[in-house]
Amino acid sequence: MPAAGFSVSASAGSEFDAKITPIVVISCFMAATGGLMFGYDVGISGGVTSMDDFLIKFFPVVYRRKHETKESNYCKYDNQRLQLFTSSLYLAGLTATFFASYTTRNLGRRLTMLIAGIFFIVGVIFNGAAQDLPMLIVGRILLGCGVGFANQAVPLFLSEIAPTRIRGGLNILFQLNVTIGILFANLVNYGTDKIHPWGWRLSLSLAGIPALLLTVGALLVVDTPNSLIERGRLEEGKAVLKKIRGTENVEPEYNEILKASRVAQQVKHPFRNLLQRRNRPQLIIAILLQIFQQFTGINAIMFYAPVLFNTLGFKSDAALYSAVITGAVNVLSTVVSIYSVDRLGRRVLLLEAGVQMFMSQVVIAVVLGLKVSDHSDNLSHGYGIFVVVMVCTFVSSFAWSWGPLGWLIPSETFPLETRSAGQSVTVCVNLLFTFVIAQAFLSMLCHLKYGIFAFFSAWVVVMSVFVLFFLPETKNVPIEEMAEKVWKRHWFWKRFMDDDDDKTNGAYEAVKKAQP
Ligand code: BGC
């Protein structure tokens, strides 16, 4: 198999005339705040669920266990109800994203972001004011609906509005906001942990800041030309295209979008269409990327960093401190990805990270295996620092690879007619597996102990092999030209692009040929 067959990149000259205009950059910054909320929700749970005041109020059983010394180090937080608090958000999100698919397609990307913002605001009110467990869970569910809508619309918005040559970088602003949200949450928890007995309330309420930012942002941005044109608003779409590209010469790009939108309008059932053979490569890749992203084990670290470090015998403060360090590494390494994704390409980042993640996880498993026994109180100072350094090594490589690219690649590879349906499947699978990890992690930690890191490292090998052989390069390929420039040229996936194989492609081909 020739190495050249593994990847395909666009030939030079496929770029449309486009300047990097302030309106594009500002719109992307505002829309990307949708990621802040997702990140804040991911980051806040771990800290809150290790606060005594919170446990006493909502999970007294866990509180008692935490303070009983005879419980194994690895098992003291293993409680299904506590895990349900973390997980309910993801269950709500993975259901809501299918409604969001309808709104992104029929009402546009911008309005869908606005709906997300409103869900977030109401969810925050419920959580901050929670009097009992049901109220707490209702708040989490509303936040989950917000995540379902935001994660559906924001990555699509960013990929569509960005000029091709910096599409990767602008899309990763979403993930950058996710990481800032996680860090912000860690910092907040670090401070509120000392406020008794209502520090947890402050932690949950401060999510109002990202919620407001997204809502205001959604009111101010323009919708993407692709979405406007898809919904038949041709003149408006063209005007927006001229404005965001900073040029009058938008005809070639406009025609590409128009062609894609004519195909899209033929499609009455986007989800059924998604199952057609022609969409198989994108669908398989989108689903696998989400499963793989979660099976890197990142959320085992992110949700439970404070709990994990506590388990390892760090004192409560040191635990939050370590979580803040991993949070900062996460943010900074995402910036590396913004810089390099359109230069080095998606594949290089994923393959390099595979090696780094594998090595750091194996080392962590070995150190914990040798040095942490079930009931001993402490990892020695030196080993403690070593584990934190290895966790940071792992987090940094995730942050410039699977973190952002898990969101970028699906949002840029589906054709317009199935883009919102494809994104729903992406969000659904992502949240489903986030849920699985959130729900299972503490029990897995209790049973597998340090072996949990070996478990994730084996997955890293599988996903890296997949990238090597099956993931084509999409850097510098215009979003509406993926079929021609990527899938039809890929050594494996091109067999799905053989139009004659598929009668359902008839309408698609007819529309395509009728276009200039
Ligand atoms: C993932 C989240 C994860 C975060 C960590 C995101 O891309 O989807 O599940 O918590 O990255 O930075």
TrEMBL record:
Any GO CC annotation of this UniProt entry: membrane
One of the Pfam families matching this protein, by short name: Sugar_tr
Transmembrane segments: 20-40, 82-99, 111-130, 136-158, 170-188, 200-222, 283-307, 319-341, 348-370, 382-403, 424-444, 450-471
Localization in the cell: Membrane
SUPFAM superfamilies the UniProt entry points to: MFS general substrate transporter
Example of a GO MF term: symporter activity
Positions of the Major facilitator superfamily (MFS) profile domain: 27-475
Domain of life: Eukaryota
Gene3D superfamilies: MFS general substrate transporter like domains (1.20.1250.20)
Family per similarity comment: Belongs to the major facilitator superfamily. Sugar transporter (TC 2.A.1.1) family.
The protein's name in its UniProt record: Sugar transporter
